[in-house]
């Protein structure tokens, strides 16, 4: 493999596996059919709006981005505003001024704004029509309704992403009022609220008053089949293949989070290219794990805060690893007794539940970075990772550090149960 071929392959890998940026091409998007159908249904019904919520790193923004390409195929002629990224400094007025400026921009470039099929609807140029100018400096929900009511001839989709970063409760209440106002007046604009949350109530205030106007779209973690689709789609047109054992281990390590599937596929692919191989093998995956430990600074800080100890005999690392390897319930929670069983499997000896409970309680404290969150009552506490990205990182760091034999980790996760584990490279 020549240097030019290596550079080309690295560039192609970076184009299809994007752990640091949302997917914006449907050809690279995998899974999420149920959530896609729910969003399309909401957009096609005047007066309906949608709230897309779930854990960090599960592909919410990617789904919101690829809607622009999917909508024409579903029969929609809506203008997609692209995403309006919220932050903690935003108030209601700043959000809507930005949203309508973006919508105006999409209208202005309409002659070149084609989505999906060649015959898809395009928006006529109208550069003089500045929707943002219709809003006063201090915006109310009714101002938004009046401005959007002038937008005739087609429909629009406006996406407010990272809505969980809004800290002003009044903004959330006003957004709920806006949804109700737009729905009551049958304004042909769909609002899509996207954010990290366990429920709609965490994202938007007064949500009960707009129940009939919103479609709640929870985003669970991806299935192993869906994660496998990401890998297969990515390597479909590349002159490099991944061995089936590596494919299965990456899917297992990702724990339903596409972020890690993209990251591990990218780094293991780069490792194979660097050594001039057209097949990604176990050694490349181990190189990828080392690279992830080096590059994931914020999650690494959370991990080290949780397990830091001045005592060499400390079992905090092993306990957190056991938490990461313990199969949780559908909400991501696990019990101390379950962690104790996993610990026994890791250590080859019994681990008293009270000792495990002590460490779990410490992981919920500020001193250890609130690595875990807890609910329930004494002797009935349930635990889960506060940051979903910390769970796979804990396993990856333990493998990189060789805290325990990697075969034991794979066995506990079921990664050695695949009958094709010794199979041919997948393409």
Radius of gyration: 24 Å
Uncertain parts: 110-128, 416-427
**What's the tally of helices?**
17
- Indicate the structural class: alpha/beta
Mean pLDDT: 85
Shape: globular
Please provide the count of β strands: 10
Major β-sheet profile: 5 strands, parallel
Order of helices and strands: HHEHEHHEHEHEHEHHEHHHHHEEHHE
**Strand-residue proportion:** 5-15%
The first-to-last residue Cα distance is 19 Å
The percentage helix is 40-55%
| Number of domain units | 2
Name the strands of the widest sheet in spatial order: 2-3-4-1-5
Spell out the key features of this protein.
427 residues, alpha/beta, Rossmann fold, disordered C terminus
Task: Tell me what the structure shows.
There is one protein chain. The chain is an alpha/beta fold. The protein has two domains: 32-219, P-loop containing nucleotide triphosphate hydrolases (Rossmann fold, 3-Layer(aba) Sandwich), CATH 3.40.50.300; 225-426, no CATH class. It has 17 helices and ten strands. It has helices at residues 3-16, 33-44, 60-70, 92-108, 141-149, 169-184, 200-203, 224-235, 244-254, 258-274, 282-295, 297-307, 316-325, 336-347, 353-363, 390-401, 406-413; strands at residues 49-54, 79-85, 156-161, 189-196, 214-219, 241-243, 279-280, 372-375, 382-385, 425-426. The strands form three sheets. A five-stranded parallel sheet has the order 2-3-4-1-5, with helices on both faces. A three-stranded mixed sheet has the order 7-6-10. A hairpin with a 6-residue loop joins strand 8 and strand 9 (382-385). Helix 1 (3-16) packs antiparallel against helix 10 (258-274), helix 5 runs parallel beside helix 6 and helix 8 packs across helix 9 (244-254). It is globular and about 70 Å long. It starts with a helix and ends with a strand. Residues 110-128 and 416-427 have low confidence and may be disordered.
